[in-house]
Design brief:
alpha+beta; 2 domains; 2 helices; extended
């Protein structure tokens, strides 16, 4: 009888672990779907160049001491060429050609080396020391 009970208890434990694993997998699947939707939306912005033109961007208190936040952000990214996810070809050097602030969180950048071109959307955040941290969100690169 003890063997049957311990076997039954072990089965219940296995069932609980299986249920926890299923819940974690479901949660990760939902998160993946949400990330794909964000990426698809951002890719659409890049491809169509449909920007929120005409609407002012609210940068928040962090940017209160910066007189021209959009210019500040644009110049900060142009100085970080290592953020370009594409290497130059035929001796060319990748440069940011156009940087446009889309929202208080994202910036669109177009870059090329005179031979090939790419586009990326970066998430940005003003750091306490005045620098801006950029993270690549999505890119459209040549094949």
């Amino acid at each position: 009888m003890t063997l049957v009970c311990s076997g039954f208890y072990g089965c219940k434990q296995d069932d609980r672990q299986l249920e926890i694993s299923r819940n974690q997998a479901d949660s990760l699947s939902r998160e993946l779907v949400q990330q794909r939707e964000v990426n698809d939306s951002l890719r659409h912005l890049i491809e169509k160049n449909e920007l929120a033109a005409g609407y002012p961007i609210f940068f928040g208190r962090k940017f209160d001491t910066i007189s021209k936040p959009e210019e500040y952000i644009s110049n900060a990214l142009k100085q970080q060429k290592d953020k370009i996810p594409l290497d130059g070809v035929l001796g060319g050097t990748m440069e940011f050609r156009l940087v446009q602030v889309l929202t208080e969180d994202w910036v669109l950048a177009i870059y090329d080396d005179g031979h090939i071109q790419g586009k990326s959307i970066y998430e940005y955040e003003l750091q306490n020391d005045g620098s801006i941290r950029f993270s690549e969100v999505v890119s459209q690169l040549p094949d």
